[in-house]
Amino acid sequence: MKELTRPRRLAPGARVAVVATSGPVPEERLQAGLDVLRGWDLDPVAGPHVLDRHAEFGYLAGTDAGRAADLQNAWCDPAVDAVLCARGGYGAQRMTDLLDWEALRAAGPKVFVGFSDVTVLHEAFATRLGLATLHGPMAAGIDFVKNARAQEHLRATLFAPETVRTIASGGRALVPGRARGVTLGGCLSLLAAELGTPHARASAAGGLLCLEDVGEETYRLDRYLTQLLRAGWLERVRGVLLGSWQQCSGYQEIRPLLADRLGALGVPVVEEFGFGHCAGALTIPFGVAAELDAEAATLTLDEPALR
Q1: Which one of 31, 65, 270, 302 is most buried, counting C-beta atoms within 10 A?
Q2: Residues linked to residue 175 through DSSP beta bridges, in sequence order
Q3: Residues 282, 275: contact at Cβ < 8 Å?
Q4: Which of 123, 194, 212, 216 is catalytic?
């Protein structure tokens, strides 16, 4: 697995586009998120369809074509320096194939931020654009709007990435050891769902794999992990970082499953690393070379997440 192209860091006054790639966006949270970005001396602009609702499927932020157009137009606008997703939910899979990837590549590297359902786009940006991205809080998310730790870690990553080259989580080793590799990952259920699709990478070989999820029963987490194992997707992975498991079956039930499915890989595994669907979620760059120290519960980047 190779390192990916790192976009440039943001500077005061940078224009940031906020788009809805997945589920419907509450207007009051969107406005609060835009206010946070303005407080960072950024120039946020919301996509035309960001508050749309699908006429038939209430779990979608408008039509697939509308969501794709907002992302496409924002990315290809030379005045836009970064694209932040408004929220996750579901819908990114439905619009990813509608994007003009040649045009996105021609527009050059930009900062891209999101998590949860946006895992689909992290994978696509890696495989189609060779671009490093940020797994972090979204502009209309509760964590982004209300949690100081989540805000500050993302802000430091965007403006002064050299200050957060070592990400210390307060977690602990599920399997001790150290490993080097290139970061990747996201929402476990989406990684399993993406197997065999045009934008998914063939395996996690050489990677430091970040996994988390929300609202899943233990047997379903078992199914996703087993699918990745049976498909050979986890062969030669270098290490695993486990984030949050909010609204799942309870960590006392999930932890033995994670040890059972991941322990046999023979690589370091760190748990409760503090990213994903949790309060104060850390921003994790994907596509960068790093070292994982499971016992210290740290991820140290070879270079800052952004140039």
Answers
A1: 270
A2: 269
A3: yes
A4: 212
pLDDT tens, position by position, 98-107 = 999 999 999 9
Secondary element (H or E) of residue 301: strand 298-301
Active-site residue (options: 122, 135, 153, 277): 277
For residue 194, how far is the Cα from the chain centroid?
Answer: 14
- Whole-angstrom CA distances from 24 to 73, 93, 99 are 19, 15, 20
CA separation for the pair 38, 46 (Å, rounded): 12
Q: Write the secondary structure of 244-291 as one string of H (helix), E (strand) and C (coil).
A: EEECCCCHHHHHHHHHHHHHHHCCCEEECCCCCCCCCCCCEEECCEEE
CA distance 106 to 101: 8
Q: Which residues, listed in sequence order, are joined to residue 52 by a DSSP beta bridge?
A: none
Known active-site residue 116: yes
Round the CA-based radius of gyration of the chain to a whole number and report it. Answer: 18
Residue that is written with structure tokens 């495989």 in the block: 127
Q: Angle 218-230/251-262 helices, nearest 10 degrees?
A: 10
pLDDT digits (tens, 9 = 90+) for 262-278: 999 999 999 999 999 99
| Encoded tokens for 184 | 């990747």
Q: Would you say 177 and 110 are in contact if contact means Cβ atoms under 8 Å apart?
A: no
Distances 226 to 245, 258, 259, 262 between C-alpha atoms, Å: 17, 11, 13, 10
Helices (H) and strands (E) in the chain, counts: 10, 14
